[in-house]
């Protein structure tokens, strides 16, 4: 079966409060896309493997600082995979330093966003991310 891109979002985030805020932000913006959550890099890769023969997310929001397998390790594995490497990965983290940003781009990140500190800012970031990756960007099938 051919793998296709679907308009659902995969969020890798270990913090329950951040998951709730993200889900609330997408809901408040009126988005109906399905959001799948995983709590670490191991779960992220297992999830992608479980849907590999059917569909993959429109994009992945990836926290860097997670248990079991952190975001850097997961990013590296995704971008080395023959199919998963096509999935846009947006690093979405509190880590803000030039060395880390550079490292993530070298590992294949498509975008690096520092998590906003207010809910209002999160709403704006959610709107921008979704608009760009679902409406503007051209991504291979």
UniProtKB/TrEMBL annotation:
InterPro entries membership: CheY-like_superfamily, Sig_transdc_resp-reg_receiver, TCS_response_regulator
This protein's UniProt keywords: Phosphoprotein
Keyword Phosphoprotein: yes
Gene Ontology terms: biological process: phosphorelay signal transduction system
Pfam family, one: Response_reg
SMART domains in alphabetical order: REC (SM00448)
Modified residues annotated as 4-aspartylphosphate in this record: 63
Listed PANTHER family: RESPONSE REGULATOR RCP1, RESPONSE REGULATOR RCP1-RELATED
Designated name of the protein: CheY chemotaxis protein or a CheY-like REC (Receiver) domain
Higher taxonomy: Bacteria, Pseudomonadati, Bacteroidota, Cytophagia, Cytophagales
